[in-house]
Design goal:
The complex is a heterodimer.
Chain A (H helix, E strand, L loop, with lengths): L8 H13 L27 H22 L8 H26 L6 H6 L10 H4 L5 H22 L5 H29 L3 H14 L11 H5 L11 H15 L27 H14 L6
Chain B lengths: L1 H8 L11 H4 L2 E7 L2 E6 L8 H15 L5 E5 L12 H10 L1 E2 L28 E5 L7 E6 L5 E5 L3
Parallel strand pairs in B: 2-3, 4-7
Antiparallel strand pairs in B: 1-2, 5-6, 6-7
Classes of the chains: A mainly alpha, B alpha/beta.
Chain lengths: ~300, ~160
Amino acid sequence: MSDIKPRDAAAVAAAYEAEAADVHGDVSVDELALSAELTGADASATASDDVAAYALRLGDDALILSQRLGWWISRAPELEEDMALGNIALDLLGHARSLLHYAGTASGRSEDDLAYWRDEHEFRCAWLFEQPNGDFAHTIARGLIAATWMQELYTALSQSTDATLAAIAAKAVKEVAYHRDHAVQWTLRLAGGTDESRRRMLVALADLWPYTDELFRDDALHDRLEGVAPRPSSLRAGFDEVWDAVLAEAGIVESDFVHPRIGQSSGGGRHGNHSTHLGPMLAEMQVLARRHPGATW
Amino acid sequence: MERARRVAAAVVDPEVPVLTIEDLGVLRDVRLDGETVVVTLTPTYSGCPAIDQMRDDVLLALTAEGFRHVRVDFTLSPAWTTDWMSDAGKAKLEEYGIAPPTHRAGERSGPIPLSLGVKCPRCGSLRTREVSRFGSTACKSHFECLACLEPFDHFKVH
């Protein structure tokens, strides 16, 4: 405002008005290019519309779970878990960046365009990932289902005929294996700990289990991506094998947490129909980028 | 060309400054594309934030050595593994106080994790305990030595 001459009353009035309208008048935002994005095997690869739609689903799963897990930093039961959940979130964010970058090549959008400038109905994550953190047991139960599924998924996807998806998956599978170890260890510890820890673990499994089936549902997109993307239903047997082994080790049987009258969720996340939990989370995730487009620090 | 490779290979990891990006296995290729030196890096973990710093450091190091056209590309394939870490790198890590990867990254046997003994980089004892499977960076876990009681980082097998 210093370049406004005092006697230019109209300009001063206009300047005050502009300043009043912009309550963050002293924040300057540089329109800098964002840092170069990490890419897959071939940096120049462009996804077809179908491949982009598929990458968007997986990218959204990773992004939304990453954002959820980030909440735990400074709030986890112990410092080591702050670091563990933060590290898992960081790996997932890396997967999200690669997948969303690739998805964006089909429409000329960047990973940030996709993360920050889509609205709730444009997200394609499954309902599991947007479920609230709950207590620590809920976060572990969600993580166990997620990582067990992701390990099956990325193992199969690393054989994709699409070189970029195969490269992203081959890298991710090693990381989600470690996430699964983390979830398995805590599941065993909570289930075999005190009466209270076991009770909470079972409540958490009961609450999260209904969001499992959505991960394994085939649809028309998978028909069109034969060889590129594994059919979700084909991942079920591998998932069940690991799941059963973990439950057996934890001394849990299905009737401990599967309620006979509560079925599997219809979960429309792959088509943009979300639970009530996603919207508020996106509001928090996106507000800064939308209020200050291009902001960097 | 050989000089460009030497300069790029001498850039150190910002998180573990005793290791060069070559020791770490992050430096994948240095080649000439016309007049441009093209350096290819691969991130350790998908979300590793140090990769941006490594790119900047490579650009700065080569520019300071007089290379006028430098580009840094990233690749994810083949996926980085601690098997690429040089023996010199492992020795430097241990000397620095970080226990190096204990074995080669192999096939995982089953869903129930098993852990192997990690040697304390300070006193050499194998009586150590994993405090946390996740450490100060994505590539490390946190241990303590039951013999000398010192805490230490372990570079995870990956």
